[in-house]
Design goal:
The chain is built from three helices and eight strands. With 109 residues, the protein is α+β, with helices and mostly antiparallel strands. It has one domain.
């Protein structure tokens, strides 16, 4: 999973388009509200944490491949799990921020 790159019209630099996540070469999730990135867990937006944790990584020393897609297929028998997990975290992020933003202000002296 990764963000597509686009040119920033103000700076001309290439920046990540966080309204879109390229899941793989066949699936792209578009129209992600930027508010979804306001929900932060351990210093990182929850959606970015999911993208990082679901990445296919090969350990340099051992050559062991950590692939969430393989785990989803072999363990829980649901090859769509990583994509569904991303979508669920997106929904939880948006709904949590709605709740948090509607909480009354604390009156602390």
């Amino acid at each position: 999973m990764k963000f597509p790159r686009r040119k920033d019209p103000d700076t001309g630099k290439s920046v990540s388009d966080k309204s879109t996540v390229i899941y793989n070469e066949f699936i792209t999730v578009a129209g992600i509200p930027l508010e979804a990135y306001d929900y932060v867990v351990n210093g990182k937006p929850a959606l970015e944490w999911v993208m990082e944790r679901q990445a296919v990584i090969t350990d340099k020393d051992s050559g062991i491949v950590n692939d969430a897609n393989f785990w989803a297929t072999e363990t829980i028998h649901n090859p769509r799990y990583p994509l569904e997990f991303l979508q669920r975290v997106m929904t939880v992020s948006l709904e949590t921020m709605k709740l948090v933003n509607n909480l009354p202000k604390l009156d602390i002296d």
